[in-house]
Amino acid sequence: MELLISSFQQVFILDTLALIAIGLIVGIVIGAIPGLNVPLAVAIALPITFKLDPIGGLAMLVGIYKGGTYGGSLSAVLINVPGTPAAAATALDGAALTRQGKAGKALKMSLYASIIGEIFSDIALIVFAVPVAIFALKVGPPETFSVGIFALTLVGVLSQGNILKGILAGVLGLFLSTFGVDPLTGDFRLTLGFQSLSGGWSFIAMVIGVFAVSEALVQVERRTIAKSATGPVRLSDPNHQLDRDDWKLCLPVIGRSSTIGVLIGAVPGLGAAVSAYLNYGITRNLSKRPEKFGLGAIEGVAAAESGNNAVTSATFVPLLTLGVPGDVITAIMLGAFVVHGLIPGPGLFEENPNFIAAFFLLMVVTTAFHLVIGRLGMPLFVQATRISNGLMFPAIVVLSVTGVFVATNNLFDVYAMLGFGVLGYFMIKLEFPVAPLLIGFILGPLVEIGLRQSMIMSRGSLDIFVTRPLSAAFLVIALLTVIVVGRREWREFYKKE
Amino acid sequence: MSRFKKFLGAAAILPVALALTVAVAKAQQFPSKPLTLIVTWPPGGSTDVIARLLAEPFGKELGKPVAVVNRKGGGGSLGTLAALNAPKDGHTVLMTTSGNHVLTPLKKKVGYRYDAFEPIGQVVAATLVLAVRADSPWKSLADFVKDAKANPGKYLFGAVPNGMPHLTLNGLAKEAGLKIVHVPMQGGAPGAKALLAGDIQMLPANASSAASNLKAGKFRALTNFNANRDPAFPNIPTAKEQGHAVFGNPFVGMAIAKGVPQNAIKVLRAALKKVANSSSFKSNAVKTGTAITYLPADKFGAVWARDWKNYEPILRKK
To answer: In this predicted structure, what is the pLDDT of residue A427?
Structure first.
């Protein structure tokens, strides 16, 4: 009880509440702008928080984190350019809905799904931190490998009708992920003599290139000025409303995706983008109407968005229980704890229960604020559909170039982004799906490191993947996915013939 | 040459001469603009936190703000090169570490050596410990050595490939005649997770990054690899005390490219000395789990040369 009172005293003060709001607004804006990403925003805000009290500082960072993870979906839905890598799965159906004049519907679902995902995640952090952490510890190198293999089988699902082209794009993604430093020996490989490639291809440059720059090139070629909406857009229009059927369809999806998202968030090294894709793929696999996916299936938006935002509190589970940050962003936030002498880990609960209680309350309050700010901003965001492509795409390209440069401080990555733009352009022209390219790029290192570490642990025996139960389970699911999807694809192929 | 041409020549030289005078005047009152402190590792890491803690008082001392910029990648070489190629006016300073300064240039062709830089001063000499899980049967270094000798190739340790912890544990294995297996890790955090999960049996790690699990009793440190015990962890004996003269001390300090005017270097050295010895900075650093071990420029330079000589035979041959 005392803890509750003291945590209220720390969180419900004007400064802290204002910092949460500022963090959320900054996060949503940065998340929505292609090129500027959440880790960057958190890193820039980090030194500011050194001067604030710990809860105030974390209030701002958590706000940026949650707002930014959601903000990426705005541009994904409205202009088909994911603001963050984790929102790329949202673009598949969200942008399709916008093209049908149902942007408000997609935006609302993405906000509410995000919020429900966050609520699941908050509960997991506060109530189930210990069992969730035990699960996370069970995911060692063999399990990472098997999860990666399972996720790769979903490439077929994300191929939007052409499984062969999807697999090719996925393989290209895997190949591109091998550039840079060999993760196991530390040696350079495939750097082609470029010093700047020694860190590998920049993921931000790739995402922005294949989504934003390529789209701009396509628009240039069309030479027509178009906009999705002509008059002022009102969210109260029936086209922008979520009806009972939508909710009936989406609620179970959100529940499942949020649960999976929480578990993914708790395992260090997986992250929001993996969760979004995995949940999108699983939802499509289990759906009764898989053919609607990619053409404006509202449950696709729900799966991707609840999946990526459910990660946001869960990544603090390993940080607070094991002292190990759950993703890149919590790794940066670790600095905000440490600089105040708060060393996250099992000891913190005993040493500083006041702080932990206040931090938990902060998470919940941020989720509530996120709902309010997101909903208030929506009538404004949706007007973006009124901007013509003639204005929109030059602006996006300028933002992308500056964003990538700011993010990496390296001009090479800007050129790489333009190169990926050309690649994306040809992929669009030749009707190659882009999602598998990204998923291959994200999963490549997971699978490689998982495989090679496991091989060292088992002294070269492959048994390790089936004798560890969790790893075996993932491999079985992967096999089932291949069989089920393979059958379905074969039938569709047969029908066409 | 006509008079007119002479006049033109003189007129052309005049602005150059003026610019030179201004440049000299500027150099005399260093620093003349905000400074950049390059960190070669990602934001939020231990080097980054120290750099950011340092930036503010350092800037106050110099009278100009200091901006921390993260240039990660290539084992720290990208940031190091950026500092090396910056204008030699003293306004770009490198937060340098053993990794980017000694180990990376020995391992890979990156286009610089440790002596491309002038030392400004050491800020931290980190303590490396050998951590095991609390339920491990090993209570001391001797227990571990005995067990590992009896079971060659049985025990696994996790470390970033060819980082200081990896090389130091290799050093111990060589000195004591052990065969232990290295599982490459992508950083300190995944290593800590692997040890907690029992996927590996030991973890050579920075004491500050293992601190939370050490304090909570989840890890036990068998030894540290310092010359002396670390005041932050007085109960951890050194390897030398336990009969194995194996050392590993990753450093963090400030460096600047050779060719920068001496007066600027002098100003930077004096400012770092003052800040690193100030009690407020020291206590802030201790709160983050890092003890400040300041060394003046000449001694810091000697550390570079020593480490270069020590690690060259190990890393070069590959």
So the answer is: 95
In words, the CATH class of domain B128-224 is: alpha beta
Comparing A494 with B83, the larger pLDDT belongs to: B83
| Angle in degrees, 0-180, between the axes of helices A103-127 and A298-309, rounded to the nearest 10 | 30
Per-residue pLDDT, averaged over A112-126, amounts to 96
In chain A, where the domains are located:
2-496
Q: What is the pLDDT of residue B21?
A: 53
Contact A318 B193 (CB under 8 A): yes
The domain over range B31-126+250-316 is classified in CATH as 1.10.10.10:
no
Beta carbons of B78 and A332 less than 8 Å apart: no
Which ipTM score applies to this complex? 0.86
SS3 A108: helix
Task: Please return the burial class of A349, using the count of CB atoms within 10 Å of its CB with bins 0-12, 13-18 and 19+.
Answer: middle
CB A20 within 8 A of CB A63: yes
Q: Where are the domains of chain B?
A: 31-126+250-316, 128-224
pLDDT value of position A36:
80
B216–A268 C-beta distance less than 8 A:
no
- CA of A468 vs chain B CAs: smallest distance (Å): 12
> Are B253 and B124 contacting, i.e. CB atoms less than 8 angstroms apart?
yes
Chain A: give the shortest CA distance to residue B53, in Å: 8
Burial class from Cβ neighbours inside 10 Å (0-12, 13-18, 19+) for residue B126 reads buried
B63 pLDDT above the threshold of 80? yes
CA A72 to chain centre: 8
Q: Using an 8 Å Cβ cutoff, are A337 and A324 in contact?
A: no
Q: Is B252 helix (H, G, I), strand (E, B) or coil?
A: strand
Query: In angstroms, rounded to a whole number, what is the distance separating the alpha carbons of residues A466 and A472?
Result: 4
What is the C-alpha separation between A54 and A71, in angstroms, rounded? 25
- More confident of the two residues A260 and B28: A260
pLDDT digits (tens, 9 = 90+) for B203-252: 999 887 788 888 888 999 999 999 889 877 889 999 999 999 999 989 99
CA distances from A393 to A81, A213, A215 (A): 10, 8, 8
| Distance from chain centroid for Cα B311 | 15
For residue B68, which residues of chain A lie inside 8 Å, CB to CB? 47
Q: Do A188 and B74 touch (CB under 8 A)?
A: yes
For residue range B160-193, what is the model confidence (pLDDT) as tens digits?
888 899 999 999 999 999 999 999 998 888 888 9
Interface mutation target, options B196, B203, B214, B284, chain A, most CBs of A under 10 Å: B196
Q: d(Cα B182, Cα B167) in Å, to the nearest integer?
A: 10
Neighbouring residues of A5: CB distance < 8 A, sequence distance ≥ 6: none
